[in-house]
Amino acid sequence: MPSAAILAGGRATRFGGRDKGALVVEGRPIRERQIAELSRLTDDIMLVGGRVAAARKSVTRELRNEIAVRLVRDRVRGCGPMGGLDAALAAARDDRLVLVAGDMPFVTAELLGHLLALTREADIVVPQTPDGYHPLCAAYTRACQPALAARLADRRLKMDDLFADVRVRVVTGDELERFGESGRLLANVNTPAEYEKIEALFGHQL
Question: How far are the Cα atoms of 30, 187, 191 from residue 53, in angstroms, in the given order?
Fold first, then answer.
């Protein structure tokens, strides 16, 4: 059974420091929506980062009672998503891990399961759209750890650059669209303006 990690460590400076995972989308907080989807794939779900305790408190008691979620802190502080990936791979119970940014409301178990299945042929499986790669909605294996450790030691922290060091399988076009409209599947909430845009497009609410 694979492992799964939700990144919950960002400071959300562009969103006034708010916990974006607590934003409500179609009647349910983003984090709860993500946990519900991930629980269809695995029972090893982690909240990863510097704000994990606060993040877990935002999950309803009913869901906490139903689904166990582990809290994992970064091993190397101040390294952003790459530090979160490092912590998640180190703590994962399985060699395969799906990583999801904490502000993506519409990721689905079907898409994530497909990414995980493709790790048979690659160390990283990542979607790509005209907007670029989406390394915070991707599958990783423990084979990434040596390259990841080297980049963390040198403070080379751009996620996409890790692709040069390992085997990568890119999911694009029709293969990606089989699981839904990619603009919705991979939408995230970095800023209040993006939140308003997603609200207008997909009808979510505070």
Answer: 16, 25, 23
Contact 98, 142 (CB under 8 A): no
Q: What whole-number distance in Å separates Cα of residue 36 and Cα of residue 12?
A: 23
Written as tens digits, the pLDDT of the chain (206 aa) is 999 999 986 665 555 667 888 888 777 889 999 999 999 999 999 999 866 666 666 666 556 656 789 999 999 999 999 999 999 999 999 999 999 999 999 999 999 999 999 999 999 999 999 999 999 999 999 999 999 999 999 999 999 999 999 999 999 999 999 999 999 999 988 766 776 666 656 554 43
DSSP state of 79: -
Q: What six digits make up the tokens of 1? A: 């059974």
Closest CA to 146 of 93, 96, 86: 86
- Tell me the CATH class for 3-202: alpha beta
What does 46-95 look like in DSSP terms, one character per residue?
A: EEESTTHHHHHHTS-HHHHHHS-EEEE--SSTT-HHHHHHHHHHHH-SSS
Annotated domain spans of the chain? 3-202
Residue type, 99: L
What are the phi and psi torsion angles at 170 (to 5°)? -100, 135
Asked if 69 and 98 touch (Cβ cutoff 8 Å), the reply is no
DSSP 3-state of 191 = coil
Helix (H, G, I), strand (E, B) or coil at 200: helix
